[in-house]
Amino acid sequence: MMIAGRPLQVVRRLPRTTPPFPDEVVLSYLSRLGQINSFPDGLLMSLWITENDRQTALISTLSGYRIPVLQCALPELRLKSPQMMGPSWYTHAPCYRCAARRAPGQSVNAWHRRRVRLCPIHWVWMGNSRYPLLTGRRPDIHAAYRRHRRLEARFGRQATETAFTAASNIVTKWAEMNVLVLPSSEDLPAAPATGTASPREKWATRASAHQYPATVALTALLADPAWTEQALAARTWDQLRPTFAHLVSVSYNPEGMSDPLHRWRRDARDQQYFSVP
Ligand SMILES: [Zn+2]
User: Fold this and answer.
1) Distance 100 CA to ligand 1 centre (A)
2) Which of 55, 84, 145, 195 is the 20 to 30 A CA-CA neighbour of 251?
3) Pick from 42, 21, 232, 208: which is nearest to 127 by CA?
4) Which residues surround ligand 1, an ion (CB under 5 A)?
């Protein structure tokens, strides 16, 4: 075949091929195809085009995989245009053990519907691809992961994601204020695939994994319209405190504009007020 717009470039099947990784980014797959055929860096990636029918036909010819197989594996090819991948999609390196099994020796970039990077097969927290953590000794993290999925099923993916973002900010702030109740030990050993993450990145990755169960527990409240309605209507936190008391120290009660939960309520009220037609 010839690439439209580049009539002098004749494309044929590459000498060596490799299967796409599930939900792989098109550029990642082109890069890996180029790598296993010993092409110069970026040569195949320069063939990336924005019109998906032609892109799909091109990759099918290069890789030898049928179009339905590629559309199943590469989410961008299921859309009319790669630009349509919405903000609810995230790209990042998948679990290092999944990548080692399916694409040995190669780096992979894949699309994910969630920001949380936990491989439930290998029990690996991929908060930072250069600093994966092993979560095998933290069943609470896996229970939280399953609960997170159930919240998505109950309240919808977008509403849960919005609540999770707000909960992450609140929990992080509570941890800084030293009022967040956390397990006494992290028990999150670094995986052998550790790369060159900075101390700050390592600290942030550990904190997000360690605080994940508390974050999901708070997400369950913030995503629940009944709880939110109560929280916005209540004059004080006294009535609602039993619902999140297990997350914070005994003496803690949200108050003042420096408190993250208090700020969340103010912002939610403002949003409610300004959204009234
Ligand atoms: Zn994995």
Assistant:
1) 9
2) 145
3) 208
4) 95, 97-98, 119, 121-122
Nearest one of 35, 40, 39 to 18, comparing CA atoms: 35
Centre of ligand 1 from the C-alpha of residue 120, in Å: 7
- Estimate the crossing angle of helix 157-176 against helix 212-222, to 10 degrees: 130
| Tens-digit pLDDT profile for residues 208-227 | 999 999 999 999 999 999 99
Flag whether pLDDT at 276 surpasses 60.
Answer: no
Instruction: State in Å: Cα 41 to ligand 1 middle.
Output: 27
Q: Delimit the domains of the chain by residue range.
A: 1-113, 136-277
C-alpha to C-alpha distance for 229 and 167, rounded to whole angstroms: 16
Mean pLDDT of the chain: 87
Measured in angstroms, how far is the CA atom of residue 103 from the centroid of ligand 1?
A: 12
- Ligand 1 centre from 64 Cα, in Å? 27
Is 2 strand, coil or helix? strand
- Model's pTM, two decimal places? 0.83
